[in-house]
Amino acid sequence: xxxxxxxxxxxATPRAPAPPELDxxxxxxxxxxxxxxxxxxxxxxxxxxxxxxxDDPYRVHTPFGAFDGDDLVGIAELVWERDDDARTAYLELLxxxxxxxxxxxxxTLLTCAERxxxxxxxTTLVLAADHAAGTATGNDGRAGTLTAPGGASGAVLRAPQGxxxxxxxxxxxxxxxxxxxxxxxxxxxxVLDVAGxxxxxxSRLEGLAASDxxxxxxxxxxxxxxxxxxxxxxxxxxxxDAPSGAIAYELEHWDAExxxxxxxxxxxxxxTTLTAAAIAPDGGVxxxxxxSLPAGSVAVEQWDTIVLAAHRGHRLGMRLKLENLxxxxxxxxxxxxxxxxxxxxxxxxxxxxxxLGFRPFALESVWQRP
Length: 370
Known about the structure:
9 helices; 30% helix; alpha+beta; twelve-stranded mixed β-sheet
């Protein structure tokens, strides 16, 4: 390998002109997304990356690349919580340009990530990869076994929980296994077509709106002051209550200031954020769901959805999603589809999504060293 690994140079401020290597980083993300997923709708533009990698009081973001001269031939992105008790780092991105694979560039980037994480006291490393997906649907109409295509041998890998599989000879799987990682979880990536369905969603919401003592409150970008503390509690629970398979996800500490900082950073990225929250009889947040609207796109990303354990059993998950779909139509009717990520073993949330009309799009594998 003739490539040199070094940090991606960032602009002095998020609004300053991006250095050429950050432009190249964003372009390679887009290229890899097109190869793996067949779309670049989820690729982060360079302006968003500049904000993402700027000083964050709650998370460390470390992008670095493999360079052959001035050419960027591989990229990696490492993230961890700024918490003295945290011991896990997440390698959220690792990719090499197609014509430079099998030159150990990916292995060198992984070794660099391990070193950076260890120096920061993060002794556990979690690795993620994307896979295009096909589906077999069971007789009950719900998605059954979901399998990433392309395996020549026919052998498949399953996570400790859930039914989805990926071929054992998938290149990302082979890379992870060769470096001592075990498959800890598979996430289903699903997509919902929303264009022209606003009346359908409104009608379904009307049938749920007066079902019990909970009320739903929705907002754009900035949460009401009086909900900040209980919303922070719900965010904190989201970090550890969501199904995690065999992956060591750690508690994220949230307070009102972190909620406001998250809102500020989203606006700086040019994103619009739509939130619907269920309010319990005591006035606190019982659950919430978030839609994030990237600038200049027809796509939407479904982010966190949670109903706290004490408030489950009231169909709040469906009600929250329908309320945010109503808000989406009001905020930006030009949006055409929503992408969402769910643990393959999260049958309850998958059932809600299937009822709404989400269809399989891809799989994300998550790996951790035993």
